[in-house]
Amino acid sequence: MNINEFEKLGLRVGKIVAVEPVAGSDKLLKFNVDIGEGVPRQILSGVVGVYVPANLIGKNVLVASNIDPKIMAGVESGGMLIGVEQDLKGNPRLFFLDEDLPAGMAVA
Asked: What CATH number does the domain containing 87 carry?
């Protein structure tokens, strides 16, 4: 992959503004994430049971913003939160960024 292909991912700093479980799913949380577009982006992530949703509000995460929308559990996800698929205990984990970084900042 060359740098131009990498840049197509549209990696951005995202600030979590809301989190809630996805009805009918035992794995998915629905995040509203500010990525500097004026309206928060809805993004789903399979991290139920790993984090307490209320504790995620205001955290900065790494977002791939140019991922094609995908329907999961009947709900559209408009991006991807970046993290590790499994930590040493087998849990998915999100990458958190410094909280003083502004939402929408490009990541290289």
From this structure: 2.40.50.140
